[in-house]
Description:
The structure holds 2 protein chains of 2 kinds. Chain A is mainly α. Chain A is 93% helix and 0% strand. Chain B is mainly α. Chain B has one domain (25-127): Fumarate reductase/succinate dehydrogenase, transmembrane subunit (3 helical TM bundles of succinate and fumarate reductases, Up-down Bundle), CATH 1.20.1300. Chain B is 79% helix and 0% strand. Chain B is built from 4 helices and no strands. Chain B has helices at residues 18-49, 51-61, 64-91, 98-127. The model of chain B has no long low-confidence stretch (mean pLDDT 86). Classes of the chains: A mainly alpha, B mainly alpha.
Amino acid sequence: MNNSINDNLIKVEDLKTLKTHGVGHWKLQRISAIAMVPLVVWFTSSLMLILMGGYEQSIEWLQSPFNATGLILLFGTLYFHAALGLQVVIEDYVHHEGLKIVSLILIKLIAFVLGVLSILCVLKIYL
Amino acid sequence: MSRQRPLSPHLQIYKPQLTSILSILHRGTGVVLSMGSIILVVWIIALTLGKDTYLLYSTVINHWFSHLVLLGFTFGLFYHLSNGIRHLFWDAGYGYDLKHAYISGGVVVFCSLFLTVLTWLIIYLKVI
Lengths: 127, 128
């Protein structure tokens, strides 16, 4: 009897963490997804060409404030969105608790570093 | 304190259907694109390091095999984008029934193939 009351209390606690953490993650993943729609369309039409183009062409392209802004926004949302997505995949398929925590931290860290590094490079060329 | 949480689906026990394959492909492309984004970082770093480094990068990226890889990434990108929009409709509560899930699935596959072909036509007409 006592045990089942305790079990129910635990369930309520679970719901509370879901409300504060799960919904926040869900919303952020959608917001970053919507932000990526115009960025991805812009990216594939012009950046793919630049990606395969020459040095001067790339530098010139990055001197435009619109292209530089777009690229910074793309790098920021890309690594934010990627970290959120990879987090869910790890949570779903890595069942070893220690390995899960380590890989979750690593993913966040790598995404953050790559985001900062790429944005810094854009700024260096632009400025 | 460790509690029993509901597990993610065991993929092996499902009979493959268009809907399940598209669902798995969304995750698959998401993971692969995350890895592929490294190419963008390599590009911007090579550009920052100067002309010599960029020339090296340029030779590698313009190899026919790299173009093939980029073609694959473009398809993955358009697929993830189209199917992501499909997911957003579901999130808003539309198209949950089986019939519309299949229709939107077909639309997503068509759009991602069409956009991939269109993009590479533009690239090849402009670059080469």
